[in-house]
Amino acid sequence: MHALRQIPPHRSARVATLSAAIVARTLFAVLALSVLTLQVLAQDARSAGAPMRLRGDVTARGDVLTLGDLVEGAAAEMALRPLFRAPALGATGTIQVRRIAEAIAGLGLGSVETGGRLQVSVQRAARKVTQPEIEAALKRALDSGYGVDSRNLAIRLDGEAPVLLAPLDLNGQAVALDLSYDARSRRIAALITLGERQASLRVSGQVIEIREVAVLGRSLNRGETILASDLTVERRPREATPADAQGAQADLAGQVAQRSLSAGAILRSGDLAPPDLVARGEAVTIVFDSPGLNLSLRGQANESGRLGASITVTNPISKKILSATVIGAGRVSVGPAPLLRQASAAFDPPTVQR
C-alpha cells in the first residue's frame, strides 16, 4: 500500500488594495505611451503622404550641396548629408535630376517628386570685389605707403574691369599688398587681397590726376543768361581738360554767354561774363563823390558796360562827355581827384548871359 501524502490546506492569495498614487502612475505611463505612438504614426503618415520634393534651381553658399539644399521634406538629421560638389565661385552648373534621385535612393530614402524637371541649375554665391573697391584699396595704399594725396586721383586699371571673387564669409575690407608705384610714369601695381590672402587678385594700371570742371547742361545762345540748373560739376582727367577750364568753385550762375555754347561743353574763361548793368543810350545817374562834395545828375550812356567797366557818358545839359565807371544798374561814377574841376563844371548848369 502507498502511503498517502497529506494535502496541504489551500490558502487564498492576498490582494493588495489599490492606492491613488498607483492609479496616477499607471495612467501617466499609459498616456505617455499613447502620445509616443501617435507621434510615430503621424510621422509615418507624413512620410507616406508627403514625399520629398525637388526644390528646383538653387544657390549654393558653400563648397558642397546637401540633401536639404536640393529637396524639401527631408528629415532634419538627413538634410545636412552632402551629395554634390558646388560649382566654382560665381559660376553656374547643372545636375541631372536622375543623379539626384539615384543619390537619394542610395541613402534608402525612397523616391522624390521632380515636377517633371530634367536638370537643376546651381549657382555658386560669391562676394564680388569690383573696380571701385579695388581703386579705393589702391588709394589707401598710396596714401600710407607713398604719402600721395589721392583725393584728386583716379586709377585706370589695365584690361577689362577686374573682379575679385571671394567666399561670402570674407566680408572684410579689400587690402592692396606688395604695392609698387612709379611717380614719373604714374604706373601702379599691387595684389588685392581679402582675409589672410584667402582670396587675391593682382592688378596694374595708370594713376590719373583729376580736376573738377563746370559742364554746361544745355545749349546757350550769345547773350543768354546761364542758370544754376544749367550747370553740372564733373570730375575729368586733368590732361583732357583745358587749362582755363572753370572750376566747381566759380560763381557762374547769372552770367551771360559771350558766344554760342553747346550742351556738354566744359566752360572756359571768357565763355561767360557778368551781365551789362548799363545799356548804350540808356539814361543813367552820374555820381560824383569825394570828401565834402557829393553830386549827382542824369546823363546818357554812350556804351554798354558791366559792373566795374569804364564807359563814356554825356551830360545832357553841358553836352560834355565824361569817362565813368559802372557801379550798379543804371548808375555810373566819375572819379574825384584829377576830374574834380571837370566833374564840378559838368554838374553846374550853364550861366545865363545878361
Question: What is the topology?
Answer:
Elements: H1 20-49, E1 52-54, E2 58-60, E3 64-66, H2 67-70, E4 71-72, H3 76-79, E5 82-85, E6 92-96, H4 97-106, E7 112-113, E8 119-124, E9 127-129, H5 131-146, E10 153-157, E11 164-166, E12 175-182, E13 187-194, E14 199-216, E15 231-237, E16 256-257, E17 272-273, E18 276-278, E19 283-290, E20 293-301, E21 305-306, E22 310-314, E23 321-328, E24 331-334, H6 340-347
Parallel strand pairs: 1-7, 2-8, 19-24
Antiparallel strand pairs: 1-4, 3-5, 6-8, 9-11, 10-14, 12-13, 13-14, 14-15, 16-17, 18-21, 19-20, 20-22, 22-23, 23-24
Write a structural description.
The chain is elongated. A hairpin with a 2-residue loop joins strand 19 (283-290) and strand 20. It has helices spanning 20-49, 67-70, 76-79, 97-106, 131-146, 340-347, and strands at 52-54, 58-60, 64-66, 71-72, 82-85, 92-96, 112-113, 119-124, 127-129, 153-157, 164-166, 175-182, 187-194, 199-216, 231-237, 256-257, 272-273, 276-278, 283-290, 293-301, 305-306, 310-314, 321-328, 331-334. By secondary structure, it is an alpha+beta fold. It has 4 domains: 52-125, Sandwich (eubacterium ventriosum atcc fold), CATH 2.60.480; 129-210, no CATH class; 211-273, Antifreeze-like/N-acetylneuraminic acid synthase C-terminal domain (Type Iii Antifreeze Protein Isoform Hplc 12); 276-347, SH3 type barrels (Roll), CATH 2.30.30.760.
